[in-house]
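EI: anyone free to look at a 322-residue chain?
SC: sure, send it
EI:
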Amino acid sequence: MSGTDLAPKASGSVQEDQSDKAARRAKGEFVRGVGTARDWITADGSSGYKAEPGRYHLYIANNCPWCHRCVLTRSVKGLQDVISMDVCWYRRDGAKGWQFNPDIPGCTVDTVNGQKYIIDIYKIGGIQQTSVPILWDKQTKKVVNNESAEIIRMLNCEFNEWAKEPIDLYPPKLRDEIEEFNAWIYPELNNGCYKAGFAKSQEAYDSAVRMVFNALDRLEKVLSKRRFLCGSQLTEADIRLFTTLFRFDPVYVVRFKCNKKMLNDYEHLSGYVRDVYQFKGVAEASNVEHCKQGYFGRSGNTVVPAGPDIDFNQPTERSKMK
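SC: here you go
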C-alpha cells in the first residue's frame, strides 16, 4: 500500500522518515514504505503525460485506504468513463502480493495487461515493487505514479475538461487549510492506526494509540462546528480522512487494537462519516465487505467478524451546518 503524505512534487516528509526509520523500527515502531513512481499527468501535457480520456488506468484494492482515496476522487469527480479501473482481490499471495481474482464479487481481471499479479504489471514498466494504487499509462505502458496523495491531486486538477461533476476538491482559497489538516491527520490518524496495529513493542503501541485518540478528540471538536473539515464544502482533506473513519469500527477497533472507543461514541465524527458516505459518488466507491475480508482474512484462520452493524445511510442533520 502506498500512503505517504505528500503534496505534489514535495519530498521533505519522506526524507525525514527515511533518515530515522532504522531507529524507529528498533523501538518497535511501524515504518511505512514510499512510492517510487512519481511522474505527473498535466492538462497541457507539459510533463510528458497529457491528460486524455481513455489513456490512463487505475489498479486498486478496495481494502486499501490509500487506494480508496483514489477511487473516491475518481467517483466524486465523475471520471469513471475517463479513467478505467481494475480491482484486485483483497487476499494477497504470500510470495507475489496483490493478485486478481474475478471469481470474487467486486473484483476484476487485469483488463489492460492481462496479468495475474500486480508485481508483473510493475515489471512491464521496469519497476520492482508490489504496491497499489497504480496509475498506469496505456499508451507508453508505464507506471505514471503509485503515490496516492499525488494521484488524487492529479485526478482532481488535471482532468476537469471531462469530469461530469464540477466539484473542486482542492480550491485555491482553501489550499492552505487543506494542507494544514493533511499535515497532522496523516501521521496521527491515517497512518497512526497502522502504527498502533503493527507496533512490535508495548511502548510503541501505547504511544501510537494515544496519538490516534488525541487526533479523534481534536477532530470531534472541529466537526462540532463545521459540516466538513474546511467548512461547507467537501475537499481533499475530507476524502483522506473519510477512508480511515470508514474502516475504524469495522476494522481498526479490533484488528489494530484501537479499542479505547468506537467511532459511534463520537457524536459529530459518527454523523460526519455518514454525511460524507451519503455525498454523491462516495457510497459506490466504498466497499466495507472487502475491507473486512482483506484485513481479517489474512490473519491465520481467515475467520471474519460478523459485526459491527453500521448504517451509513442513517440520516444526519449536518447539511444544515456551515
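EI: The chain has ten helices and four strands.
SC: 👍
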